Amino acid sequence: MSFLGLDVGTTGCKAIVVDETGRLFATAYRDYPLVCPNPGWNELDSETLWRSIQEVISRVSRETGSDPVRAVGVSCQGEAIAPIGKDGRPLGNFIVTFDNRAEAECRWWETQRSREDIFAITGMPLHPMYSVNKLLWLKQHCPTVYAKAWKFLCIEDFVILRLAGSAVIDYSLAARTMCFDVTRKTWAAEMLRLAGLSEDMLAEPRPSGFAVGTILAASAKELGLPPNVVIATGGHDQPCGALGAGVVRPGLTMNAIGTSDVLCPFLRSAKLDAAMLDNNYCCYPHVVRDAYITITFNLTGGLLLRWYRDTLCHEEMEEAARTSSDPYDVIIAGASKDPANVFILPHLVGSGTPTLDAASRGAIVGLTLRTTKGELSRAVLDSNNYDLKLNADRLEQVGVPLDELRVIGGGAKSSTWLKLRADVLGKRVCVPAIPEAASLGAAILGAVGAGYFPTAIAGADAWVKIGSVVMPDAHMHERYLEKYGNYLKLYPALKEAGIQY
What we know:
Elements: E1 2-8, E2 12-19, E3 24-31, E4 43-44, H1 46-61, E5 69-76, E6 81-84, E7 94-95, H2 103-109, H3 115-122, H4 131-141, H5 143-148, E8 151-154, H6 155-164, E9 168-170, H7 171-175, E10 180-181, E11 186-187, H8 189-195, E12 204-206, E13 211-214, H9 217-223, E14 230-236, H10 237-244, E15 251-257, E16 261-267, H11 274-278, E17 284-285, E18 292-293, E19 296-298, H12 302-312, H13 314-323, H14 327-333, E20 343-345, E21 363-365, H15 373-397, E22 402-408, H16 415-425, E23 428-432, H17 437-449, H18 456-463, E24 466-470, H19 474-487, H20 490-496
Parallel strand pairs: 1-5, 5-14, 9-12, 15-22, 22-23
Antiparallel strand pairs: 1-2, 2-3, 4-7, 6-8, 10-11, 13-14, 15-16, 16-18, 16-19, 17-18, 20-21, 23-24
Helix pairs in contact: 2-4, 10-17, 12-13, 13-14, 15-16, 16-19, 17-18
């Protein structure tokens, strides 16, 4: 018996299969491009997305052998949403998180309810990225498509609909729409009324690890899965990643270094106070029953390193091709050994928390004629770490303990980057033995849905193992504090100078 975890991200999807002991024995990944039909618009082609999901599930299912898949859990990016027809097929593309077309719709909410009222209900600080704003935009600008839609689904509920025939969404992902009541754990009637939506236009909310049903016969045949596979609710990729990293108790924090750079600490209960809202920190249900999480994020995150690679690192890419190496490894290996005197404001798609300023833009500051490529490479790494420290410090100031980071994502593969991160934050950094934490979290929730584990915590305790630990260097941490102080001056100074979109 085995369990399949599917993680559908912004730029690619991954499926893993683990056995009853949590041993990873099959994995498949497929990337896909973002579609950008207009400036500031970012979408995923719905058919390309579904074909990619089919491919990774089919590939891992062929490797299960004598351990047939018992259950499937789904982790996915938040906020992305698409109109779905009565036949279950999308009527348009999925509009993803950092698409910025819905700024006017976001401002409209301020004429209806205060930020404080919205936060108290939904746990979400007002921002254009949330799904309900995308739906308001569709209603205004694509009325024909909007009227034809049977439902509006996020990616998890779309996948569950395709696999099990029912449109069901878990609490954590429902919260990312900004029209879910995070304490009552139901669709928020007042938010829906104001938006002109009804519950039957959305998926049915259920707790994570809920068994929706068994797989449809046609889907089982198509994907090479057994006919009795349980399809279970999973969750938003950040809390799924936290579960897969063992973040199931206070003091533990997941750090996902991927497209975005995210901190996701465990909360015993909902924290919806003014200090959280002042820092634009959301609060919503964890995939662990009765617990909550918050997330901080730098929206650029790994995209900064990708931009740097594609724009300024052609020589490094050629060397990587010549030596069959990863270009990122070549870039990191060439970075200066000392903290950089160059600073980068990593706001290439606007700022994340705590400022959540969609108009902010990136900047490189401190260049001289003697600045080297190695210093620029180090500045990319250091500046992302400084941005993370800003959020880590703010979390502790609002009463959220951060004792240990559990690091996942592409950045977790670099021992150099992890060491720099430990030194900048002054925190112990642990890397789970299975780095595909969001997929593992989804697999754990599938196992809960199938009755193999009684709770998600039991699953994490059984399956999550720590592969390596990086301890901070106190001397280097002190050196970084001065640099960090300079970094903190960048955003206020550039905003004051009017360097915005």
